[in-house]
Amino acid sequence: TKGNNILRGKELNAKLKSLTEAGGDEDWNIYYVDPEGAKWCKSYPNSGYHGGGEPELRQVEKFPWDTNEIQ
Contact, 57 vs 12, CB < 8 A? Predict the structure, then answer.
């Protein structure tokens, strides 16, 4: 399910190869889309660690800039 699929290390690096970057934010999060249209976020939840800590990649419902409005 979305939000529960967290990848780290080798799994994260392997998944990144199939993703297209969609943007980023001021919190060092980088957002991606996979070939099926699913949205992903690479974040650094332990940002207090040296170098930002180990990154995590998780599937998200929407990007922060997505709106609920139908255009």
Answer: yes
